Amino acid sequence: MLDIKRIREKEQEVRQGLLNRGADPALLDRVIALDRRRREILTQVESLKSERNTVSRELGILKQKGQDISDKQHSMRELGDRIAGLDREVRSIETELHEAMLLLPNVPHPSIPVGPDKTFNRVVRQVGEQRKFDFQPKTHVEIAERLGILDLRRAAKISGSGFPLFAGPGARLERALIQFMLDVHVREHGYTELWPPVIVNAKAMTGTGQLPKLAGEMYHIESDDLYLIPTAEVPVTNYFMDEIIERPLPIYLTAYSLCFRREAGAAGKETRGLIRVHQFDKVEMVKFTTPETSYEELESLVQNAEDILKRLGLTYRVLELCTGDISFSASKCYDIELWAPGQNDWLEVSSCSNFEDFQARRANIRFRDESGKPRFVHTLNGSGVACPRLVVAILENGQQADGSVVLPDALAPYMGGLTRLVPPSS
């Protein structure tokens, strides 16, 4: 949530930032109008209360003198009714203002590229070379089905499309990747591991910005008003909801979770296999920092995600997202994309964002500065990383002409020494 004081004092800056990201200016206009009306009424209320206090003192004096005060008492009751009516109006406006503020996206950081869509994203760097093949590379679906490690047909029979089912070495590969990533983040990057719930309440989803904007993409348990999480960012960020953090910043947290999303792209080649799915595994990184250090921490967050891909020997590139492509809550965001030769395309595997105090205001997460004054923290999160497209890249880059797949060396300790996936003998 944006700071209403920032909107009042730097309206043009906020307006231009929201226009740069394609937000409807009517949303900001409504917030400004409601805030102005609220403050006007509060001024009236304060004036009326001051008048009531004056009249109340006069009544006391007249009563002591034994004079008739019935007319003034009637006026006092009318004054009280006017104040009560205005108080009700203020509460109603405050509710409307809060709801309108929840619909306003974050203001993009001035350093990011300005543009309406992903074509304006900037490639920051590429690490590794795209592998050259002396045979026609296959897609991960063809590879996985030949290996017998992914059963999309039975998964669809059980749950419908978009819910993968790994089998045998495929299941072990998924588990190995999760453990490998958590070990790196905890042992070498300084994160504390959490094992969070995958069902959260509406307040938590609102705190990180999924609600109300993205309600249609979430799996909602209506009977209990609970939600399946789209990412561990939600429970991990809300770990400090409604708290003043009484420990030194920064704080690094990491967690594995299942993730659930209704939106899985339009029908087409992306919907078959692992590129767009409704349920997936992901390791998440979350940081709580001071406002002064959050952008330095964003760069190190990206490096933590990159480190995973470097250890796996995969080719990737880092993109700085433009104003029209960053998420609702983000002020600045980097995407990391893996090269997938079977798709002949780059696939996003991590998104690393600085939300500044946008989420902290919604979730009411604060810290004490050096003077002891409570301030809102800055929150950051990044995929560290998402498994589906990571598996895609491992299979498609490691494929051999005989149908086998050479696995990254870093996974050998987690795969019981297995270094290659081989098709079962016919």
CATH class categorisation of the largest domain: Alpha Beta
Please tell me the overall pLDDT.
Answer: 95
Percent of sequence in beta strands: 15-25%
- Treating each run of at least 4 consecutive H or I residues as one helix, how many helices? 12
Rounded to an integer in angstroms, the radius of gyration calculated over CA atoms is 28 Å
Provide structural commentary.
- With about 425 residues, the protein is α+β, with helices and mostly antiparallel strands.
- It folds into 2 domains: about 5-105, Helix Hairpins; about 120-420, Bira Bifunctional Protein, Domain 2 (BirA Bifunctional Protein, domain 2), CATH 3.30.930.10.
- It is about 40% helix and about 20% strand.
- The chain is built from 12 helices and 16 strands.
- The protein has helices at about 5-10, 10-20, 25-65, 70-105, 140-145, 150-160, 170-185, 200-210, 235, 295-310, 360-365, 385-400; strands spanning about 120-125, 190-195, 200, 220, 225-230, 245, 250-260, 280-290, 315-320, 330-340, 345-355, 365-370, 375, 380-385, 405, 420.
- The strands form 4 sheets. The protein has an 8-stranded mixed sheet. It has a 3-stranded antiparallel sheet with strand order 3-5-4.
- Helix 3 packs antiparallel against helix 4 (about 70-105) and helix 5 (about 140-145) crosses helix 12.
- The model has no long low-confidence stretch (mean pLDDT about 95).
